[in-house]
Amino acid sequence: MLKIGLTGGIGSGKTLVSCLLRDFGAYIIDTDEIAKSLTNIGGEALPKIVKVFGKRVIGSNGLLDRSWLREQIFYDNSARASLESIMHPLISYYSDMMLRQYVGLYVVFVVPLLVETTIWLDKVNRVCVVDCDKETQIRRLSERNLSLDMIKRIISIQSDRYARLKFADDIIMNDSGISKHEVFKQVKMKHNFWYMLSKKFLV
């Protein structure tokens, strides 16, 4: 089976692209969705996170305080490493389990930090980068009620835009000057190409 790794910097538009691919019939394994399920009430990762970060990580509503946790991990490298040591193995495990349940031509793994972790590069046959300029990232993220300092911190931790593009077999451009219709056309072309390419994996 052809395995595509879909990645891009925060605010690049990975969610838009993955939703379009899902509409076209692609099988999507979104690691952010897996992470959220693992950290919701009853999620496998939640007790481990509480053990490492303490009860302060749980808000008054009984849910994971994601804003508080974000402050910890983006300003403390050791805290981020501790969280990754909990989340990455679980996300990889459940991604593999979802893959084993699928029978089809190609699958898309949506992984924000794909090029930063070799485990994902080893899982996929091709890397597709959703790309946009830094100014567009900042503008989109400011609409999520994140402070400018936090936005710059998150962007600085991720791979540099051009370093990420070096890993790309396919690129979908999504700068502020590109309309959703233009993104739609790019995604449709990639889907058609991957669909044809995937048939070679059946031979």
- Number of separate strands: 5
Principal-axis shape: globular
Radius of gyration: 18 Å
- Segments where pLDDT lies below 50 for 5+ residues? none
Oligomer state of the chains in this structure = single chain
Mean pLDDT: 92
What share of residues are in beta strands? 5-15%
The CATH H-level homologous superfamily? P-loop containing nucleotide triphosphate hydrolases
Which CATH class is shown?
Alpha Beta
Terminus-to-terminus distance? 10 Å
**Helix and strand string, N-terminal first?**
EHEHHHHEHEHHHEH
Largest sheet geometry: 5 strands, parallel
Query: What is the count of distinct domains?
Result: 1
GO biological process, one term: coenzyme A biosynthetic process
Enzyme class: transferase
Binding site for ATP: 11-16
Catalytic activity: 3'-dephospho-CoA + ATP = ADP + CoA + H(+)
